[in-house]
Design a protein that fits this description.
By secondary structure, the chain is α/β, with parallel strands linked by helices. The chain contains eleven helices and 16 strands. Helix 7 runs parallel beside helix 8 and helix 10 crosses helix 11.
């Protein structure tokens, strides 16, 4: 499990979503107008300067994520907004020059590696060409009808402004017809910036928020450079992970397919990645304000079930914990992490360095396959079981997705099962010294769990089943 913390959250400053703040009639447009004034005078560029990270403690947060079970930490290098979160040589609109005046990616990388975690980055810049075009519009009604938003500003108009010598067109992108393809200068800038990111911070994982490698030759060449650079810096051993979305089967071996907020229907031939967030991808205070211990966030039970289902099908699980503009996370996000931590510290053996078993699981409930279907894990319960195995293949971990009050029968581990599991010699409940009553029969492995167990650990019971 690897919390994927996309911290570049000035886009949610004061509940403002950058693109929608330029879409007249949207709630974010109205919020921005009420709190900051017209978008023709105060726009996204001005929010960049107000991003503070005033209370950000990277080492402390990495320690919390590591305790919760993280083996890799992934940070957002840039989003569709075109603002780079490192000391970018090819984009003057960056975090080292504006806002927090810090190399955010460099700070995250150092903190993660100091505590023994691998480090990854996500790159979303390729979408900026289309994403920010509303910033070139203007109100269609009202007192400022027809007045252009600040996306139309040029560098020359910045004289005597706080953004003097900065070109807003480098942030918002040039205005163009909707169906226009990115020009050569845009693609080259994307290539130069992403290569600079790789050269400065040598990430172990590079994620593109795109179907296939983005922007034609730009993405293809970056992919090649990323792999070759990794070989060079690891003594000829390939340790790089390159993520893209919607990967066709014939390319599944060359990259690691990413399923955003999604799952698969079965065990995948090649490793894949499921990524989700405990809330929105960027911080949304409204989720914290909802009642209950976890507010509107994904509860730890669902986080654990999502991860277990993913790992049982040959996947890696990435969890995003969105940060506030000051660099902190709120108390309900911490509560979710505490629940995950409690379970992982007891049951991590059934997750780490495991492989899929002959089948991924059994039970009456199925998850929905595909991207944005992951919330279907909420219907999984104590009659649903997922399997993993150790590398030696003499131990099967049976993860019961709940805490059953009656004996359970795992049909796939019966002596007459088509899976041919072999003879069971021992069954243990991870984290418990209590003896587990069990019996392997032709129709299944019958197990009776203790009636009560530690709080938070009952999200899923992990049974260690040793074979002869």
């Amino acid at each position: 499990m690897a919390p994927n913390c996309k911290w570049f959250d000035q886009t949610k400053l004061a509940k403002t979503q950058l693109r929608s703040m330029y879409l007249e009639g949207k709630p974010q447009y109205k919020y921005h107008l009420d709190h900051y004034g017209p978008q023709s005078r105060f726009g996204y560029k001005d929010l960049c300067a107000q991003w503070t990270l005033l209370n950000w403690e990277a080492d402390e947060l990495i320690a919390r994520y590591k305790k919760a079970g993280a083996k890799i930490f992934v940070a957002l290098a840039n989003h569709h907004d075109s603002f780079d979160a490192w000391d970018s040589k090819h984009q003057p609109w960056n975090a080292a020059a504006l806002g927090p005046h810090r190399d955010v990616i460099g700070t995250w990388a150092a903190a993660a590696r100091k505590q023994g975690l691998r480090f990854g980055v996500t790159v979303h810049q390729a979408r900026n060409w289309w994403w920010f075009q509303p910033s070139h519009g203007g109100d269609k009604s009202g007192p400022l009808a027809g007045v252009p938003y600040d996306g139309d500003l040029t560098q020359a108009e910045g004289k005597d402004q706080w953004w003097q010598e900065l070109d807003p067109q480098r942030l918002y992108g040039v205005k163009h017809p909707f169906d226009a393809l990115p020009d050569i200068s845009y693609v080259k800038n994307f290539y130069d910036r992403t290569r600079d990111l790789i050269d400065q911070h040598n990430p172990d994982l590079l994620y593109f928020d795109n179907s296939l490698l983005p922007l034609g030759w730009g993405g293809m060449n970056i992919g090649a450079y990323f792999y070759n650079n990794n070989l060079k810096t690891h003594g000829g051993k390939m340790e790089a992970v390159l993520n893209i979305k919607e990967v066709p089967d014939h390319l599944a071996k060359s990259v690691v397919a990413d399923y955003e907020r999604g799952l698969t229907s079965g065990i995948m031939e090649y490793p894949w990645q499921s990524e989700t967030c405990i809330g929105d991808w960027h911080y949304n205070r409204a989720l914290y304000d909802k009642p209950g211990e976890y507010g509107g966030y994904l509860p730890p039970r669902d986080v654990i079930h999502w991860m277990i289902d993913t790992v049982s099908k040959n996947g890696t699980f990435i969890l995003n914990v969105p940060g506030k503009p000051d660099g902190t996370i709120d108390s309900k996000e911490i509560a979710v992490l505490d629940g995950v931590t409690a379970w992982m510290q007891v049951n991590g053996e059934a997750i780490y360095e495991t492989r899929p078993w002959k089948i991924y699981g059994e039970g009456p409930n199925m998850v929905k396959a595909g991207s944005f279907q992951g919330n279907s894990v909420s219907k999984l319960g104590p009659k649903d079981i997922r399997f993993t195995r150790n590398k030696a293949n003499n131990v099967v971990y049976a993860l019961v997705l709940g805490w059953p009050t009656e004996p359970i029968l795992m049909q796939s581990l019966g002596t007459s099962s088509s899976t041919q599991p072999g003879n069971v010699v021992r069954v243990e409940l991870l984290g418990s010294g209590t003896k587990v009553n069990w019996k392997q029969q032709p129709d299944g492995l019958r197990v009776e769990l203790p009636k009560q167990y530690q709080p938070h650990v009952d999200y899923a019971a992990a049974l260690k089943v040793t074979m002869a």
